[in-house]
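BUG: 3D viewer hangs when loading the predicted structure for this chain

Environment: internal workstation, default settings.
Expected: structure renders.
Actual: progress bar stalls at 90%.

Input used:
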Amino acid sequence: MIHLKDVTKLYKSNGVVALDKVTLDIERGEFVFIVGTSGSGKSTLMKLLMHEEVATSGSIIVNGKDVTHLKQKEVPYLRRSLGVIFQDYRLLEDKTVYENVAFAMQVIEAPRRIMQRSVNTVLDIVGLRDKFKSFPAQLSGGEQQRVAIARAIVNDPRIVIADEPTGNLDPETSWDIMDIFQRINAAGTTIVMATHDKTIVDQMQRRVIAIEGGKITRDEARGVYSENQPEPPTPYNKFFPFKR
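Structure tokens produced before the viewer hung:
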């Protein structure tokens, strides 16, 4: 699904080595947290997967395609196969909830009938069917992030890449958002999420890949945010109940 081999990213403008010979495999259906301090290299890793940045050396395979040296005209096709979610939502302020989600399907020229059905389906998934006529300014931060998630999954991508999706949200809303990610993952979608949210990482105990100084320092199947900390108790949260 995602395979990196000896990937290095050097920013020539300042000489910073953001990633240093990183090798990594993520298989279909995994839910992976990427953690690390600011400047550790995790954001660079996410950008390489989306081809917002180009590796200096090494190889990157995403969805079975070598994206290391894509031609510029091929980049949009890569991004259409991914669902991407950002901390700052990136919604179109002059479009309604429905129009924001539908825009992702308009780009690929989906038939109108299929578009209507798909948009309504994903709005049901994120619990915003009744807000389809609302504009982003009329929504809370959590609701705007739900729209962003709906837009990311409306084309049924195999992989969802989420960069700090709960960074601007309060704890209760964050759990609501993570519940949606859990359901998306349970349906078979691979999720790669960069986050600073220690509580979520510790309680969910999914695969955790820690990056520091551009290198992978830890890769655990049922990990926690920080190394050498006691295992958290089995969680049961009224906003996010799940079994381990």
